[in-house]
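Fig. S4 source data, part A: sequence.
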Amino acid sequence: MLLRYFYDEKLAHASYLIGCQKTGEALVIDASRNIEQYAETAKKEGLQLTAAAETHIHADFVAGSREMADRFGAKMYVSDEGDENWKYQNLDSIDHQLLKDGDTFKIGNLTLEVMHTPGHTPESISFILTDNGGGADRPMGIFTGDFVFVGDVGRPDLLEKAAGYSGTAHEGAKQMFASIQRFKELPDYLQVWPAHGAGSACGKALGAVPSSTVGYEKMFNWAMKFNDEAAFIEALLDGQPEPPKYFAVMKHVNKVGPALLKDTQVPVKATDASALHDWLSQGMVIDTRPAAQFAEKHIAGTINIPFNQSFTNWAGWLVNYEAPLYLLVEDGQLPDVLTALRSIGIDRTAGYMSVQAAVEQSAAWEAYENVDPADIQDAVEKGDIAVLDVRNQTEWDAGHIPGAVHIMLGTLPGRLEEVPQDKPLLAQCGSGVRSAIAASILQANGFKNVKNLSGGFSRWKQDVPQLVK
């Protein structure tokens, strides 16, 4: 048997290729839309990608199963659990098998048993793997998807907060408690292979270790320590972070089927900055440079989402899926940026330009200042500058600058009317990273007198502790 682990840091998403080396067949579990990585590994190992399985209808990325079915003729294995709202659609033209609790299927000499593990979503399933080709008659591990993570379990509130299904958070937490009781009955030696790691919004306390065991999780995972259902539900629902706005889009896309990559729009390259005027009137223009470079000089009206580990998350929050998108990118960066955008279904990238050429050619540029707490403390105390805190709710609740206005970054474009307009603005987050994006959004929407707090609230607490509420 062959097992390969793939990890997308921008999505904190893990996927797995398992292959039967005797028969040359391979399955990918929870594939991302970027299926080239699986094709390359399969070719190197002398395997054929014959199957793709999903643990549930994902909300945080575009699944690659249908892409694999189109390109390689891979058979899809997907859940048939949950009610009518959680059934896969448009599978008639695809070789597939619908799965329920207790079902089994084989990939060569490998056997996968289906375990229904609702809680994160109603249709969620896990796959228990046995390597019969190696002579084993007992399973070696379980692919848990978004059910059990290292140190955490899947959040049950996404359907309510992101997809708008009122009242489902409590029911999901109740189902999660029952699923955990079944998990605890599994052999301690089973390896646990989850679909996400630290940084994913699908849980609140995910560990950064890629795998675990059932026994280890039973001993140290906080969610395994509850015997009282009511107490567990309260603990699970408490403190869950805001789900990115794009999660609702992903749920729909993965349920009905995404567009194939071969059919997506190919962005047109511009070489003259005169195109920017039309771009800004038609959609959003993203400058992907580091925040420090953007702050020094950028084209008026553009939004700064630096191409780093957080790029995909903030693009999902801030990009309008229904409008054209335009990119100002570093030379040679476009393919990676497009892969990241397409991983969450942002397919309407209409044009791009070298960001260096654009900034050099355009006369319509502006800047904003990064300021230290000590330099701005007096203005904050006197009320001469308005503070805009763009952190998450839990961060705000733990402490904030007195008098600050709280608007979480991902919701800022839709809440600009709440931003003070009668005085200069100080954008602030935890470290200065999110507030830099906020500063670009504010300037693009007419709030020109903006500063960004260097080091964010962490440094503010250290340098100006007397001004913390």
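Fig. S4 source data, part B ends here. The mean pLDDT is 94.
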